[in-house]
Amino acid sequence: MAKKSKKQQSGGTPATVALTAAGVAYTVHSYDHDPSHPSYGEEAAEAMGVSPDRVFKTLVADVDGTLTVAVVPVSGSLDLKALAAAVGGKRATMADPTLAERTTGYVRGGISPLGQRKRLPTVLDDSAAAHPTICVSAGRRGLEVELAPGDLAKLTTAVLAPVGRG
């Protein structure tokens, strides 16, 4: 079952609360966030000593007027055309950061695909399936959650598709 830190025992983040409520096994990893680091995701991978292809970043895009979540490895980038195609859309652009924060309930660099204020269509890069576990933001900078990619896909009703570029 889940390993809980003191923060989680007192409620945790919406992401960890959602995982606990679903009965999903997960592990929380926390680290001291350095605001001067150029990449939130790479910082997380370095701090946890985890390969960047197992640490996934949560990006919010606008696909034909619908906010859509893409979860891709921090070692690469998001292919916007592939994201649009994965959800049956024509065109995707990165969402306005303020709108992404307001819609998900999380701050940039801490947006989790789990426990969002408003459930958005989600696409998980299919490379996640190659790993027994992956790490995603647990809902704030300096906090990651490790779980099976199948559990993440199930909880977010994500489509698996090749949306990451290496």
Account of the protein in words:
It is a single chain. The protein is built from six helices and ten strands. The chain is α+β, with helices and mostly antiparallel strands. The strands form three sheets. The protein has a five-stranded mixed β-sheet. The chain has a three-stranded antiparallel β-sheet with strand order 1-8-7. Strand 2 (56-63) and strand 3 form a beta hairpin. The chain is globular. The N and C termini lie far apart (33 Å).
Counted by DSSP, the helix tally is 6
Question: What's the end-to-end separation, in Å?
Answer: 33 Å
What is the average per-residue confidence, as pLDDT, rounded to a whole number? 92
> Using only CA atoms, what is the Rg?
15 Å
Shape: globular
For the biggest β-sheet, the strand order reads: 5-2-3-6-9
Order of helices and strands: HHEHEEEHEHEEEHEE
The main sheet comes to: 5 strands, mixed
Return residue spans where pLDDT drops below 50 for at least 5 consecutive residues: 1-10
Task: Please indicate the percent range of residues in DSSP E strands (runs of 2 or more).
Answer: 25-35%
Provide the helix percentage. 25-40%
Strand tally: 10
Task: Give the helix/strand class.
Answer: alpha+beta
Features:
166 residues, alpha+beta, five-stranded mixed β-sheet, three-stranded antiparallel β-sheet, 6 helices, globular
Topology of this protein?
Blueprint: H1 6-9, H2 14-22, E1 27-30, H3 40-48, E2 56-63, E3 66-73, E4 77-78, H4 80-86, E5 92-94, H5 97-104, E6 122-125, E7 134-140, E8 143-147, H6 149-156, E9 159-161, E10 164-165
Parallel strand pairs: 3-6, 6-9
Antiparallel strand pairs: 1-8, 2-3, 2-5, 4-10, 7-8
